[in-house]
Design a protein that fits this description.
The protein has 13 helices and four strands. It has 335 residues and is mainly alpha-helical. The chain has a two-stranded antiparallel ribbon. The chain has a two-stranded antiparallel sheet with strand order 2-3. Helix 10 crosses helix 13. The radius of gyration is 23 Å and the shape is globular.
Length: 335
C-alpha cells in the first residue's frame, strides 16, 4: 500500500512539473512576443508566424516602410497603403480595387486588420500564408503592376533599404525577404481593446443598453455567430450567402475557382467584424453600402442562390432590433 502511495505521489509530482514547464515555456513565448508587439486586449496572445520568419521589430519596421512606398508600383503612383488605408481598417472606400493607370479590379480590397491570425488569404482563400499573399498585389497587372524582380531592383538602389535588409535578414534585398518583411508588418496590424472586449471583461458600462441588446441578438435571434465567431469574429471558412447571385447566375464563382467543388460556387471567406463600422462598403464586391443595408440583407435571408448556406433564412427582425445590431457592431471598433 505504501509503495502504491509513493508511486501515486511521484506521478502527481511528474504531472505538476510538466505543467509548470509548459506554463513557463508559454510565458516566455508571450514575453518574447510582447517585446516585439503589444497585443491589444481581447485578442489571442499568440500570432502564428512561420519558423523561418519569426517576428522581429526590425522586420516589422522594414515592412512598414515598404508597405508605404510608392516605388513598389509600376508608375510610382500607389503603395500598398493606398488601398489598405489605416483610417478604414486597412481597406478603402471603393466598391472594388483600383490599381495603376486607373485599372479596375474585380473585388473589394480586403481589410488587413488581424490578418496575422488568418489561415487563408484573399476572398477565395487561394493562398495559405501571408508570405505568399503580400507580394501578389505587386505582381498583379491590375494592382501595382510590376514584377518582383523590378521591385527588388528598385529597393536595391536605395542604400537605406540595403542597410535595413542587412539588419533584419543579414542579406541584401531579395524577393523572399521582401515577402517576409511585408508579412511581418501585416502581422503587426492589430485591432482590439474595443468596448465589447471591456464589457466581456466585466466592465458593464462599456456597452450601452442598445449595444447589449444587439449583442444578445448577435448571439441569438440574428445568428451572426453562425459565421462570425471567436476573438476575431470570423470562422475563417467560406460561405455562399447569395451575394454573388444576380440575374439568374453567379457573377463571381468565389471559392469554386480554387477548389472546383460545386458546393463552393459563390462562396467567399468570412471577413472579420473588427472595425466593421469603419470599413464600408461591404461584401466581396462592395455592393452593400452601409451596415443598415447589411442587416437588411441578412434579415431577408439573402439572395435565393443555388447552394446558399443553410444558416441563412429570414430573421424577421424589428426595426428596433436592427438598430441595436448596428449599434453593437460599432462597439467592435478598437481603441
Amino acid at each position: 500500500m505504501q509503495g502504491s502511495n509513493r508511486e501515486s505521489r511521484m506521478r502527481h509530482i511528474i504531472v505538476a512539473t510538466a505543467m509548470l514547464i509548459c506554463f513557463l515555456v508559454l510565458l516566455s513565448a508571450v514575453r518574447a512576443e510582447d517585446d516585439v508587439l503589444v497585443i491589444p486586449f481581447g485578442l489571442d496572445r499568440y500570432i502564428p508566424a512561420p519558423e523561418d520568419n519569426p517576428l522581429s521589430s526590425a522586420k516589422i519596421e522594414l515592412g512598414r516602410g515598404l508597405f508605404n512606398d510608392r516605388r513598389l508600383s509600376l508608375d510610382h503612383s500607389l503603395a500598398c497603403s493606398s488601398c489598405h488605408d489605416p483610417q478604414h481598417a486597412y481597406t478603402d472606400t471603393r466598391s472594388t480595387a483600383v490599381g495603376v493607370f486607373g485599372r479596375d479590379g474585380t473585388r473589394r480590397v480586403p481589410a488587413l486588420i488581424n490578418r496575422g491570425y488568418g489561415s487563408s488569404f484573399f476572398w477565395d482563400g487561394r493562398l495559405t500564408s501571408l508570405e505568399e499573399q503580400v507580394v501578389q498585389p505587386i505582381a498583379n497587372p491590375n494592382e501595382l503592376g510590376m514584377t518582383l524582380e523590378e521591385a527588388v531592383d528598385r529597393i536595391k538602389a536605395d542604400s537605406t533599404y540595403v542597410r535595413d535588409f542587412q539588419q533584419a535578414f543579414r542579406s541584401e534585398p531579395n524577393a523572399r525577404n521582401l515577402a517576409r518583411a511585408l508579412a511581418s508588418y501585416v502581422r503587426s496590424i492589430l485591432s482590439g481593446n474595443s468596448s465589447y472586449d471591456r464589457f466581456l471583461n466585466g466592465d458593464r458600462s462599456a456597452l450601452t443598453i442598445d449595444q447589449q441588446h444587439g449583442l444578445e441578438l448577435f448571439r441569438g435571434k440574428a445568428n451572426c455567430t453562425g459565421c462570425h465567431v471567436g476573438p476575431n469574429f470570423t470562422d475563417e471558412q467560406f460561405h455562399n450567402t447569395g451575394i454573388a447571385w444576380r440575374g439568374g447566375s453567379f457573377q463571381d464563382d468565389g471559392r469554386f475557382a480554387v477548389t472546383h467543388n460545386e458546393s463552393d460556387r459563390g462562396a467567399f471567406k468570412t471577413p472579420t467584424l473588427r472595425e466593421v463600422a469603419r470599413s464600408a462598403p461591404y461584401m466581396h464586391d462592395g455592393s452593400v453600402a452601409t451596415l443598415d443595408e447589411v442587416i437588411n440583407y441578412y434579415d431577408r435571408g439573402g439572395n435565393p442562390a443555388p447552394g446558399i448556406d443553410p444558416e441563412l433564412h429570414p430573421l424577421h427582425l424589428s426595426e428596433t432590433e436592427k438598430s441595436a445590431l448596428v449599434e453593437f457592431l460599432h462597439a467592435l471598433n478598437g481603441q
